[in-house]
Amino acid sequence: MTKKTGRNIGKLFVFILLLIGGIYAGFPVVWMFLCSFKPNTEIFAYPPTFISDTFSLNAYRSILTNSEKIRFFLNSYFVSSVVTVFTLVVSVLSAYSFSRFEFKLKKTLNMLIISVQAVPPITLLIPYFGLIVALKLYNTYWALIFTYMVFTLPYAIIMMTGYFNTLPRELDEAVMIDGGSRLLALWKVLLPISIPGMISVGMYTFMQAWNEYLFALTLTKTIEMRTVPIGIQQLMGQHSYEWNEMMAMSILGCLPVLLLFLFFQRYFIEGMTAGSVKS
Amino acid sequence: MTLNSKPGSLGKRLTPYLYLSPTLVLMIVLMLVPIVIVIGYSFYDNVIMNKHPVYIGIKNYTEIFTDKNFHQTIYNTAFFTISSVVFHMIIGLTFSMLLNSKLLHRTTRSIFRVIFVLPWVFTAAIIAILWRLMLNPNGIVNYFLTLFGTINSKVEWLGSRDTALYAVTFINIWSGYPFYMVSLLAGLQGISVDLYEAAEVDGANSVQKFLYITIPQLKPIIVSMAMLDCIWTMQQFSLIWMTTGGGPIRATEMLSTYTYKLAFSKYEFSQASSSAVIILVFSMLLAFVYVRKQKARD
Predict the structure, then answer these.
(1) Which of residues 50-89 of B touch A (CB under 8 A)?
(2) Which range of residues forms the domain containing residue A9?
(3) How far is residue A49's CA from residue B152's CA, in Å, rounded to a whole number?
């Protein structure tokens, strides 16, 4: 009997904490969502309106019919997708080398790849400014793609190396005994079974690229080269605070990441922890 | 294997580097070279703006280290980083333990897992705008606080020197805890049930189980998370830049915004470079400890 009441009290306690936590984590997001359906005049209404009588999709409409704003999204999709594909290809090749070969500089290079993750973006920004201009990449997609890869590659390589290490070497040796090359073994045997690892790495890379702000702010200049994070921020200056539009654009801006997360949650969490905790 | 790749031949020794070459080229051009350049810049009077920069030794560094604003920046960054890391850990651990609780139904757990992880899917630009809306003097946060009688006048959370640093720290805590939560949850699920059962047989209560089993088992994860978080939080730029821009009057100036302003508002690229090198050194020291810890674990 006492054990049962103890259990019930425990359950109540857990539920109260869950509720508090749920409000803390979720309320700001709900509020963002609600505000995106309000007219701008009602944003700071007193007392606040939760479900607006004047529910409207105007904020979304005005973003989706504005070619300048659509361009932000297209830019972000393009840059993030290219970064993801390039990062996957390059990291798979490097990871294959780290996982399947013994060579002199292996330990050193591996250590360097791990520590490179700690280099602050702001430190690289100043030299990048000159370097990107000198390479004639200023205000181009390539400026963003290459600089983003410097930050997405280390994690991707560490993750993929860990993944390949769990796959037995006999698999690729079997292909090579049949006269196949190493690349064939990698392509035909290792890649198909590494798809879960590649999804997790790809997602993480896409998220990083989609969210990047500092380089996008400094290495591009014209409005048609801007990405979503910069676009959202520019909404603040231009239109004297159209809060409802900013909230609508935020919702649209987080949609790809949210959907990726919901679909691949399991892979993502597994990959994430494997990479960050056991690199 | 083909004939020309006899063991020990040059071709064979170069193969691993061939696979690594795209990474190596990128890292040399966009990591190694820039670091050398930025260190070089930091010893000149002013680069980029000046056609013929003059070597001045460590003068930029002494100027920064004696700058009062830089001291304030160091204090702000330390406060911001340490508070964020501590609260990330507390909230992350609490939430992960809730989500791991056997008292809850599986569906409840998976619904709350998605809710708790929500702050993570938002980029800094969105988080900044959302909290500027909520922390506005006429915003929803002030409404609720007035309703509950906690405050009696409209507080300008991000606009006042007394509260801005706390406000940006609060926002950063909100946006960063899911990273811990997710990792700690995986860690908790990895702890063997036998340990808890054995402790129960010995008559341990829940507090004792938490202190003597959960915490020691999670310690390696907690330590590496905290190190990584320290490095990243110390470098935080976008959130600060888009909420307060380092203001009002430097109340939330961090190392990163201080450096950015030196370079791109004042065009003092050499001083900015020395400041950037200082951040690099701090980060590398932390990274060194982190790598050592990781190695010790393996």
Answers:
(1) none
(2) 2-35
(3) 21
- The residues, any chain, with a CB within 8 Å of residue B165's CB and separated by 6 or more, are B76, B79, B80, B251, B252
Would B52 be classed as within a structural domain? no
**A44:B225 CB<8 A:** no
Quote the domain boundaries for residue B201: 66-297
Burial class (CB in 10 A: 0-12, 13-18, 19+), A172: buried
The structure's pTM equals 0.88
Residue B221 C-alpha, separation from nearest chain A C-alpha, in angstroms: 6
Q: Is residue B142 a contact partner of residue B154, using CB atoms and an 8 Å limit?
A: yes
Residue A77 lies in a domain: yes
A25 vs B119, B291, B294: nearest CB: B119
Q: Is residue B2 part of a domain?
A: no
CB contact under 8 A, B23 and A128: no
A20 plus A148 within the same structural domain? no
- In angstroms, the CA A95 to CA A157 distance is 5
Domain count, chain A: 2
The answer to whether residue A41 sits within a structural domain is no
Q: At what angle do helices B106-117 and A2-35 cross, to 10 degrees?
A: 40
d(CA A128, CA B268): 16
The reported pLDDT for the residue numbered B199 is 87
Residue in B with minimal Cα distance to A232: B125
Residue of A nearest to B175 (CA): A25
For B212-270, the pLDDT digits (tens) are 888 988 888 888 888 889 998 999 999 999 999 887 888 999 999 999 999 888 888 88
Q: How far is CA A71 from the centre of its chain?
A: 19
Cα nearest neighbour of B186 on chain A? A273
- Check whether residue A165 and residue A207 sit in a common domain: yes
Using a CB–CB cutoff of 8 Å, tell me whether B44 touches chain A.
Answer: no
Whichever domain contains A161, its CATH number is 1.10.3720.10
- How large is the ipTM? 0.85
Contact B276 A46 (CB under 8 A): no
My answer on whether A83 and A31 are in the same domain is no
CATH number of the domain at B76, please: 1.10.3720.10
**The pLDDT of residue B3:** 43
Interface test with A, best of B93, B140, B297 (most A CBs within 10 A): B140
Q: In this predicted structure, what is the pLDDT of residue A279?
A: 34
B-proximal residues of A, 14-73, CB under 8 Å: 14, 17-18, 21-22, 24-26, 28-29, 31-32, 35, 43-44, 46-48
